[in-house]
Write a structure and sequence with these properties.
Blueprint lengths: L1 H14 L9 E9 L10 E4 L5 E3 L5 E7 L3 E5 L6 E4 L9 E4 L13 H7 L7 E2 L22 E8 L3 E6 L5 E14 L15 E4 L2 E4 L17 E3 L12 E3 L19 E13 L4 E12 L6 E12 L8 E14 L7 H11 L28 H6 L4 E18 L2 E20 L10 E23 L3 E24 L11 E24 L4 E12 L5 E12 L9 E15 L38 E16 L2 E23 L2 E20 L2 E2 L4 E19 L5 E6 L3 E6 L6 E4 L25 E4 L5 E11 L2 E11 L2 E4 H9 L3 H6 L48 E3 L2 E13 L10 E15 L19 E2 L7 E10 L1
Parallel strand pairs: 1-7, 39-43
Antiparallel strand pairs: 1-4, 2-3, 2-5, 5-6, 8-10, 9-10, 11-16, 11-44, 12-13, 14-15, 16-17, 17-18, 18-19, 19-20, 20-21, 21-22, 22-23, 23-24, 24-25, 25-26, 26-27, 27-28, 28-29, 29-30, 30-32, 31-32, 32-37, 33-34, 34-35, 35-36, 37-38, 38-41, 39-40, 41-42, 42-44
Length: 951
């Protein structure tokens, strides 16, 4: 009778295959850390099966729009790739996730281990030391011995055994505190090389002439500072007076002003937890807090999170398992990069001539902005003092999860969640700001609510040798988004009051989704193999439906088929799948907002062209194939591990913004093929006296190509500016760089004009491919007793980068390159004239007898020739270095059970083919803007102290 009821229930679930779903949509945010608890910057995070992704910032923070049921893939050089299934518990919080350095474990050869396990009835006994973690203990037995009750582990004899002690009461607690104190700074070697020799000015009357701030001249092609002196008279732009020629060499020496605004700042982080538990119940409270100053040492930002969690222990004998939690998060960022504010700030800073002191004040006697070029650039301190930039985020998440064990081989899992997120983005600059002369203010509000309900049925049938597993999942999700944008202009001077123009845009988006998933797995115990078939079907109130999305996975362990003394383990796995990806209610990638402006117009960038999902957009599709192997083999009498994986993805109907009728719209625009290879090699080496060294290499390479462009577009820009951008072009790698280039003849010779300078092609050209040749991570860990030292090196070869920062600084004359090359004369460019003859016309780069527009760096405009700004993205970075020590306790009665103290440093040494920008940054911090460098935030270094206490 029971079997008949069970079969009927299974039949009902299978009939539901015509329904199905999407998962709850939301923002997953968090902090990625290594095993020592240190943040990991530059980690790539991709929604598996899609091209949607992001990257952690310097502090390891990230946020990504995804759905329950998505799989987030985390990849980081020197560390193993990690995949995490998105659950409701991840929404609205700031979870701390560890990425572990994978190591091959040396086999346990001591007979004491087996003996210790059989004598496990005492409350303290000896077992061999098998490392710092990874212990496994029996689930039940006398004294309900399990890991929930372990109080501490003490190594009495490093060669043979450790001692475990346990909480003796039925109710026990655990309290801990982790604290980090660090300094952040930017090294000079990571900044652009700026000249300190030449003053503001330009050629006049056949000589380089000083033109002061009142002239509005933006260039620094004036005379040397050593040829000038202050006249000592009252001057509103400089308290020392006006610079004049030092004709008699009797004036005081004029020193270059230091206008750098980057500072060394302090950040702190504290995590406090308190857990109370018995064998059957657990209650935990976790409080996280972070505070930091921005890199300009002007604003404080903070993050606070409180989590209350309850569950009845999974090792209990109860059939019904509960797991519930409530999380509240409050985040305030008082110096965000809204509308490219940080890029603009650095542009105005590094554009400032060395003869102008931006720190002497920001307001002139006539209440105008005090800047070196009133019609062109801002005083950076004016921007810092007169903005209202801030992002506030409040998240509330409540979740209830149940697992009901119907029998030894049948279970039902249910999950109900509610998420509420309120995000407010405020931006503002007062009147008289270049780019926003009337003042500008905007407020964006995102209020989202999501309800998700899921039920999962799982059935196992265990035979003598084989195992059959059937799993079915039905999920319903409701998502709503209320969006509003308020823009104001025309404020009262020096305020954000009394705007004379106000506009408000509001939009509501709602989506109901259902998903159904069936999977069937069969394990062949005799052959240690497993085959799985999965079918997904999805339907939604927005976008189209997909009723047939199959996938197949197969894995096998070949170790038993091989008679080899040196090959310990060999596993093969392969998979193929058809997947679909929904478009988020709000398209958070803002890279398109700068595509209709030039670089100099970014001073007035407003990233308010916000885009939303619509019925016109079809689901993105992905067909994938993977093949991989895991090997454990003997190398110099030690176990070594090699993992290798090949993948081939075909992305169809990829969604990007395109311009349609003078406005951006989300469209399915391209099919993209991508294939790649990844491998990981680790080789732990153990020495005497409990000393070990574990090196690890992670290698990866990939290629991609656009196979189809939808519509009538020949190319689709996806990030950058109107004059230089990343593009999708049929037959080309995805993201190729397109911009201005030198004109060439049929033999690829550069064509030279009558003045002796190269001509510019009349049409934009493909000038670079950002795809790197390969990436390599090299991690090293040294362990001795309780002392650990480790470091990680990150290397990338190749990949083209547009370095627009250097071009702009050359144009303005503030770069060291422009100082070194401005006196070059009689230079002959390689190429041919317009009649095809070899060029022989000599040119001077910055002859004062010529007009400023004839200057070699000025003649091609603010951004120069895009082709000339292409540099190789090769870099080498000492990404992290750590030293930590764990203090052992002397007795079981010690109040402090664990004390770890460590010091660390990040990004202490970096080599790149160019200076002034982080190799991990992207334009305006938008996800598609990598390989585009235009006053991006430089690479930040950090040194800190970390303390972990557990009582």
């Amino acid at each position: 009778m029971k079997n008949q009821l069970l079969l009927r229930y299974i039949g009902i679930l299978i009939l539901l295959n015509s329904q199905c779903i999407y998962a709850q949509q939301g923002i997953v945010s968090g902090t990625l850390k290594d095993e020592e608890g240190l943040p990991l910057p530059g980690v790539n995070i991709i929604i598996k099966g899609t091209t949607t992704g992001t990257q952690t910032d310097f502090d390891g923070n990230y946020n990504i729009s995804c759905a329950i049921g998505d799989v987030l893939t985390f990849s980081y050089v020197g560390f193993g790739q990690k995949e995490i299934l998105v659950t409701a518990k991840m929404f609205g919080g700031n979870d701390s996730t560890e990425i572990i350095k994978k190591q091959a474990v040396e086999p346990i050869k001591s007979k004491s281990y087996g003996k210790a396990i059989t004598n496990n009835q005492t409350t303290g006994f000896m077992i061999p030391d098998i490392g710092n973690d990874g212990y496994t203990y029996n689930k039940d037995g006398p004294n309900y011995f399990n890991h929930y009750r372990i109080k501490g582990i003490v190594v009495d004899n490093p060669e043979t055994k450790v001692k475990l002690t346990y909480f003796t009461p039925d109710i026990f607690y655990e309290t801990g505190w982790n604290s980090t104190l660090a300094m952040q700074f930017i090294q000079n070697s990571n900044l652009p090389r700026l000249q300190k020799e030449f003053s503001q000015g330009q050629p006049f009357n056949n000589q380089n002439t000083f033109f002061g701030p009142e002239s509005g001249v933006p260039f620094s092609y004036g005379p040397r500072l050593s040829t000038l002196r202050f006249d000592g008279l009252s001057n509103p732009f400089d308290q020392n007076g006006r610079l004049i020629p030092n004709t008699n060499n009797d004036g005081a020496i004029v020193n270059a002003y230091d206008n750098e605004i980057l500072r060394t700042v302090v950040k702190t982080g504290n995590d406090l937890f308190f857990n109370v538990s018995t064998q059957n119940h657990f209650i935990g409270i976790l409080f996280n807090s972070k505070k930091n100053r921005d890199i300009f040492n002007r604003e404080n930002s903070r993050f606070e999170k409180v989590t209350l969690n309850y569950n009845n222990a999974k090792n209990s004998s109860k059939k019904l398992i509960w797991d519930t939690f409530i999380t509240y998060t409050n985040t305030i960022d008082n110096q965000p990069n809204l509308n490219g504010f940080l890029n603009t700030l650095l542009l105005n800073t590094w554009a400032t001539p060395t003869s102008f002191d931006s720190k002497q004040g920001t307001i002139l006697p006539d209440n105008k902005q005090r800047t070196f070029s009133a019609n062109n650039f801002n005083n950076p301190n004016w921007l810092l003092e007169n903005n209202r930039n801030r992002i506030r985020t409040n998240d509330f998440v409540a979740s209830l999860q149940n697992t009901l064990e119907l029998s030894d081989n049948t279970s039902i899992y249910a999950n109900t969640n509610y998420t509420s997120t309120k995000n407010t983005q405020e931006f503002g600059l007062i009147p008289d700001t270049i780019g926003f002369l009337d003042g500008y203010g905007s407020t964006k509000d995102f209020n989202s609510d999501a309800f998700n309900s899921l039920i999962n049925f799982k059935f196992n049938s265990n035979g003598n040798k084989n195992e059959l597993e059937l799993e079915s999942t039905v999920q319903y999700t409701y998502n709503s988004l209320k969006y509003s944008l308020k823009e104001e202009t025309g404020f009262t001077p020096f305020s954000f009051n009394n705007p004379n123009s106000t506009t408000i845009i509001e939009k509501n988006v709602v989506r109901n989704m259902v998903q159904f998933t069936n999977s069937l797995s069969y394990s062949f115990s005799e052959y240690e193999a497993k085959a799985s078939i999965t079918h997904n079907a999805i339907t939604s109130s927005i976008q189209n439906n997909k009723w047939f999305l199959p996938s197949f996975q197969f894995e096998i362990d070949l170790s038993n088929f091989l008679d080899s003394y040196w090959l310990y383990d060999i596993k093969l796995h392969t998979s193929t799948s058809f997947e679909a990806q929904q478009t988020p209610l709000y398209y958070a990638n803002q890279s398109h907002n700068s595509l209709d402006i030039t670089p100099i117009q970014s001073l007035a960038l407003m990233a308010n062209d916000d885009l939303f999902v619509s019925n016109d957009i079809e689901l993105e599709e992905k067909n994938s194939f993977t093949l991989g192997t895991n090997l454990v083999f003997e190398l110099f009498n030690r176990p070594a591990t090699l993992e290798a994986n090949y993948y081939n993805y075909k992305h169809k109907k990829s969604v990007f913004p395109v311009i349609n009728e003078n406005q951006f719209q989300l469209k399915n625009v391209a099919d993209i093929n991508q294939y790649g290879f990844e491998s990981t090699f680790s080789f732990p080496i153990y020495f005497k006296y409990n000393f070990s060294y574990t090196p690890k290499l992670v290698f990866s390479t990939y290629r991609n190509k656009v196979s189809k462009i939808y519509g009538n577009n020949e190319r689709v820009p996806i990030a950058g500016f109107s004059t230089i951008s990343k593009n999708l072009i049929k037959g080309q790698p995805a993201g190729v760089l397109v911009g201005s280039a030198y004109a060439r003849d049929n033999q690829n010779n550069i064509i030279i004009d009558q003045d002796g300078f190269p001509l510019i092609s009349s049409t934009p050209q493909i000038i670079g491919d950002p795809t790197p040749d390969f990436s390599l991570g090299f991690s090293n860990s040294f362990d001795w007793e309780r002392l650990q030292f480790s470091f990680l090196i990150d290397f990338q070869k190749g990949g083209d980068v547009w370095n627009g920062t250097q071009s702009a600084l050359n144009y303005l004359g503030t770069s060291q390159q422009s100082a070194e090359e401005r006196e070059i004369s009689q230079f002959v460019y390689d190429g041919v004239d317009q009649q095809g003859q070899i060029n022989t016309i000599p040119v001077d780069f910055a002859n004062p007898e010529n007009d400023i527009q004839d200057n070699r760096f000025v003649r091609y405009g603010f951004e120069g020739v895009a082709e000339e700004a292409i540099v190789k993205g090769t870099y080498l970075n000492l990404k992290s270095i750590q030293l930590s020590y764990q203090f052992r306790r002397d007795t079981d009665r010690d109040f402090i059970r664990l004390l770890d103290i460590g010091i660390y440093a990040k990004n202490i040494f970096t080599y790149t083919k160019y200076r002034g920008a982080s190799p991990y940054s992207s334009l305006f911090d938008h996800s598609s803007g990598q390989q585009l460098q235009f006053f991006n935030t430089p690479l930040t270094s950090e040194v800190g102290l970390q303390v972990k206490i557990k009582i």
